[in-house]
Specification:
By secondary structure, this protein is of the alpha+beta class. The chain has 10 helices and 4 strands.
């Protein structure tokens, strides 16, 4: 795959072209994230990017190690606490935090594990999660506003992450791990494969739909994805584009 840090920068630039074009009414428009406006979504992205710039990122300590904490609850509280920033200030804040994350992640020494949600991550994996999160939240912005945002080859990082975290996704649902092979059609009609081709369970179909299922923007039933074998349907049901 292309360098993940370069692709993260490209994904930021792409979203930036959308955000800079928004009118005040569009910033205040309901997003695809339930209960959030477009401005709320951008605030959330800025806040989570700012976490990466904190010196404590190098401690490798999960943020949500306490019993009872949930990711959704924490991020909702963060957005509620700062909701209401003017769009121009919010855009400037997101730009500053977004592009700074690339430098922070590139600068980490080999073998470093960085603090993130429930599991410490390598800089490259954390960069991949930022691509996945910005891509998913870009959908929350552009789809309600009717702004074109075609998928690019960068979603390969997202598909890789979704497949890579399947063991964790199975465990969260109390299911035993199982090998799953994925043969996905890329936006340019080439094929991306993940896992062992000899695995008894197989998922095939468009990578764009696979990534949207992992982002919980589509249900498996709303797609043309095919699940074959004993655990493929379970894999689609628990699929997630993030490392928590």
């Amino acid at each position: 795959m292309a360098d993940v840090f370069d692709d993260l920068t490209a994904e930021y630039h792409r979203l930036d072209t959308v955000l800079v074009s928004l009118t005040p009414d569009q910033w205040a428009h309901a997003s695809g994230a339930e209960g959030w406006t477009v401005a709320d979504v951008v605030l959330h992205l800025a806040q989570t990017n700012e976490v990466i710039a904190e010196p404590s990122i190098a401690e490798g300590t999960p943020f949500l190690s306490s019993v009872g904490n949930t990711v959704d609850g924490v991020v909702e509280d963060m957005v509620t606490a700062e909701r209401g920033m003017p769009p121009d200030e919010l855009l400037a804040r997101w730009r500053k935090t977004a592009f700074a994350t690339v430098d922070v992640l590139r600068a980490q020494p080999p073998g470093m594990r960085l603090s993130w949600v429930r599991t410490p991550l390598s800089p490259r994996t954390l960069a991949t999660t930022r691509i996945a999160e910005h891509w998913a939240h870009a959908q929350d912005i552009v789809v309600p506003l009717g702004i074109p945002y075609p998928d690019t080859a960068r979603i390969r990082h997202i598909a890789w992450l979704a497949h890579r975290t399947l063991p964790y996704a199975f465990s969260v649902e109390g299911l035993p791990d199982a090998p799953v092979f994925c043969d996905l059609t890329a936006p340019d009609e080439t094929h991306w494969t993940f896992g062992d081709p000899a695995a008894p369970s197989r998922i095939t179909g468009p990578a764009s739909e696979f990534c949207r299922v992992g982002a919980r923007r589509l249900s498996p039933e709303q797609t043309s994805l095919t699940a074959e074998g004993p655990r493929a349907a379970d894999a689609l049901r628990v699929l997630r584009n993030y490392a928590a």
